[in-house]
Amino acid sequence: MRITVSPIVLEVPFVDLTAQYASIKEEIDGAIARVIADCAFVGGPYIERFEREFANFCGANYCVGLANGTDALFLALKALGIGHGDEVLTAANSFIATAEAITLTGARVVFVDVDPHTYNIDVAQIEKKISERTRAVLPVHLYGQPANMDAIRRIARKHGLFVVGDAAQAHGATFQGKRIAEWADLTCFSFYPGKNLGAYGDGGAVVTDNAEWAETIRVFANHGRVGKYDHKVEGVNSRLDGLQAAILSVKLRHLEDWTERRRASARRYTQLLEGADLHVPVETDDRRAVYHLFVVRVANKRRAGLQEFLKERGVQTGIHYPIALPYLQAYRHLQHGDRDFPHALEASQQILSLPMCAELTEDQIRHVADSIREFMKGE
Ligand SMILES: *Cc1c(COP(=O)(O)O)cnc(C)c1O
Questions:
Q1: For a disulfide at 163, which of 17, 182, 184, 251, Cβ 3.0-4.6 Å?
Q2: What is the pLDDT of residue 10?
Q3: Ligand 1: distance of its center to the CA of 97 in Å?
Q4: Ligand 1, residues 68, 95, 138: which to mutate, most atoms within 8 A of Cβ?
């Protein structure tokens, strides 16, 4: 007689922020206590310090801390004078914030289909979308995979366009040995808690080598203020706060270690999933991907089943993103058809994000990979 015992389900959360906090609790608690003791809540030394450290980390001359990543994109475009009557090109697969920031300036979003292997903007499609109104290209380093910055910069130079990078998912990524911010005029980051470098609340930043743009963003993000009650222009309130800056300074010291762990987990997933009839992320030799997400791809009909099967085995997954930007209700007025963005459309039906964070263990990765193989075999 066979006795069937239900297997012990190993829980694999998609991201484990509590495990990360536990690993740096003393440093974080100390940093928070110091900011509170100093009452340095808005502006002040903790912001200045983080901005210096993060600019240095990105290989940029200037960093301006902001309230979130969406504002970072919006203010970067504003600093370039982009607004009504202008067009900005961006990738058809991203989080809506990328496109929202363009619209917020008054400019028009023009989507470009993605490369089916990297899910980043397809550089071969960019020139077809350039018009006399185009002012900038906004590539997204999606999932932590650097976009093809060499080609993007060449196209941008040829047509006199600015390059603004959306690196909300790509802190620490490099392309051809150079940090991604070194390839763009301005590069925007988010410190949303789940990002590779995450605050304990919202946060964002723009980095650039251009002193004038940095100053424009700094002034605009602080009510257009140039003196205590001296306002040069009307701006907005979009400042990074002192607590977040102090927390980010602590976490920045660990980021390289965390990134290496993400990369090791990605290699492990790739090894364990070999021959499992699904696509794993491609990483070419000229890029250092930082694996904000580990996105696999399965045939359309199998994704829902696989996601359900993994859930039953305690594995949390996600889809980034289930509806490609041009097909969101928010962009229905642009009247895009199914054939306009075939790669983004197909990807949105096949991609699945597996658990990924620096704290992922070997046992967890094995459990995820074993479960996937079991599903793929059994179907
Ligand atoms: C998170 C994210 C943003 C927006 O950042 P917030 O800090 O949430 O405003 C922008 N673009 C991409 C690709 C993102 O993942």
A1: 184
A2: 83
A3: 6
A4: 95
Q: Token pair of 122, please?
A: 């397809």
In the sheet that holds 186-190, the strands lie side by side as 62-66, 204-208, 186-190, 162-166, 134-138, 87-91, 108-112
Q: How far apart are CA 244 and CA 67, in angstroms?
A: 10
Query: And the tokens for 272?
Result: 């364990």
227 Cα: distance to centroid of ligand 1 (angstroms): 31
Handedness of CA 141, 143, 144, 146 (dihedral sign): negative
**Helix/strand/coil (H/E/C) assignment for every residue in 190-255:** ECCCCCCCCCCCCCEEEEECCHHHHHHHHHHCECCEEECCEECCCCCECCCEHHHHHHHHHHHHHH
Our answer on whether the CB atom of 120 is closer than 6 Å to any ligand 1 atom is no
Does ligand 1 have an atom closer than 6 angstroms to the CB of 69?
A: yes
pLDDT of residue 8: 62
pLDDT at 5: 57
| Closest to 361 in 3D by CA, of 28, 8, 7, 16 | 16
User: What's the pTM value of the predicted model, to 2 decimals?
Assistant: 0.96
| Beta-strand runs (E) in 92-203 | 108-112, 134-138, 162-166, 174-175, 178-179, 186-190
Residue 189 Cα to ligand 1 midpoint, Å, equals: 8
| 105 in Cβ contact with 253 (< 8 Å) | no
Give pLDDT, residue 2: 60
Query: What is the average pLDDT score of the chain?
Result: 96
146 exposed, middle or buried (CB, 10 Å; 0-12, 13-18, 19+)? buried
> Measured between alpha carbons, how far is 8 from 18 in angstroms, rounded to an integer?
22
Other CB atoms within 10 Å distance of the CB of residue 256 = 11
Mutate to test the pocket of ligand 1, among 77, 98, 142, 291 (most ligand atoms within 8 A of CB): 98
Q: Is 84 exposed, middle or buried (0-12, 13-18, 19+ CB in 10 A)?
A: exposed
CA nearest neighbour of 262 among 116, 373, 143 = 143
Residue 341 structure tokens: 């963005």
pLDDT in tens, 328-375: 999 999 999 999 999 999 999 999 999 999 999 999 999 999 999 999
Residues 193, 17: contact at Cβ < 8 Å?
Answer: yes
